[in-house]
Amino acid sequence: MAIEPLPLDGITVVAVEQAVSAPFATRQLADLGARVIKVERPDGGDFARAYDTAAHGLASHFVWANRGKESIALDLKDPRGREVLHGLLAGADVFVQNLAQGAAARLGLDSAALCARYPRLVAVDVSGYGAEGPYAHKRAYDMLVQCEAGLVSVTGTPERPVKAGIPAADIAAAMYAFSGVLAALLRRGVTGRGGRVEVSMLDALAEWMGHPLHHTMHGGEQPVRTGLAHAVIAPYDAYATADGDRVLLSVQNDREWRRLAEQVLERPELAGDPAYATNAARTVNREKTDAVVARALGRLGADEAIGRLEAAGIACARLNSVAQLAGHPQLAARDRWREVDSPVGPLRALLPPIGLPDGAAPHMGAVPALGEHTESLLRALGMADAQISELRRDGVIG
Fold it and tell me: What is the pTM of this model?
């Protein structure tokens, strides 16, 4: 049986990227078979390499967002470095950058200039707030954009807003950049022309805020912060079990409440009690409702509580830690784990969420060392050893 090519086999991506948003976007492209050439500064490279050392000495953010790429260490402030970059771009299909606003233009790498020079190139600009407007030049770190987009205002408890525990603004921008590249490549297949793709972190996260945004704009009130609870459904929360775990459950309608009362709480009289019988009543009496559920689940271990809830047809889940996610039985049962190579040896990594046609295996290449592919890429451009040595001596490459 012939091995099917990956969807982006034959596509070359050149990325001047750092941190999370652009690197996570280009990693998606690499997973689908694109060749991704990551351009890094010779003096330390992508600063995400230094965020931590949790992945056996490597930075966890970097490992997550940069597998399957080739790294070239190149000083773009030096004209010779830019000449090398243009040599790479001449054979590229996609260029991605998330430099500080205005930096790409100062280097002659703005999308307008590149698309004029390379008409088939898809040039992607990932920024914090976009190229125009009063916020265009503001620093845009993930937490700051979460605040500007209002995400923090709807996340947390009534007493305290909190940011999301993952870089939500970075991830949102990355996934729109990824899908924007795919759309632009499809269009290029029809027209023969590339063009600009622009994504800002604020625009991306504002789109993800669609429910609270439309609720507020059209209903007049911002949804309140409710922690793990639900503003208009009860019971809908996490409850402690006898063995110290927490189990979440969600009762979506009054039929489910009757089953919960009879089969899990073992309080059948609550099924028809006017204080609990309807969701409106349970929401008004939320404290009493939660107390009844908490007492019942507090007498059970987590496994028994989950078993009873599932037998009664009540939606439920465990409040897992990150370590429990790493050992999640569903991920293991579906064979979602692989190993990727790295400068420190094999590292566990999850398969990409996109299942490919005919079961084709995604490309899950190694996490590159800084400048690991510099010499091989320069030689592929026709550069002689003496030229490479000169560039290395002058600090143009690393």
Answer: 0.93
Q: Tell me the average pLDDT across 188-217.
A: 96
Q: What b/e readout covers 38-62, taking b as 16+ CB neighbours within 10 angstroms?
A: bbbbbeebbebbeeeeebeebbebb
Share of the chain above pLDDT 90, in %: 94
Q: Is the pLDDT of residue 203 over 90?
A: yes
Give the largest Cα separation in the chain, rounded: 88
Query: Can you list the positions of beta strands (E) in the chain?
Result: 12-16, 35-40, 69-73, 94-97, 122-127, 195-200, 236-240, 246-250, 315-318, 337-340, 347-350
DSSP string, 44-95: T-SGGGGS--TBTTB-HHHHHH-TTEEEEEB-TTSHHHHHHHHHHHTT-SEE
Residue 382 has pLDDT above 70, yes or no: yes
pLDDT in tens, 60-71: 999 999 999 999
137 given a catalytic annotation: no
Nearest of 149, 269, 261, 262 to residue 209 by alpha carbon: 149
Q: Is 274 exposed, middle or buried (0-12, 13-18, 19+ CB in 10 A)?
A: exposed
Q: Which of 86, 137, 215, 230 is catalytic?
A: 230
Q: How buried is residue 393: exposed, middle or buried, by Cβ count under 10 Å (0-12/13-18/19+)? A: exposed
Cα–Cα–Cα angle for 352, 355, 358, rounded to 5 degrees: 135
Tokens of 329: 């039985």
d(CA 183, CA 29) in angstroms, rounded, equals 13
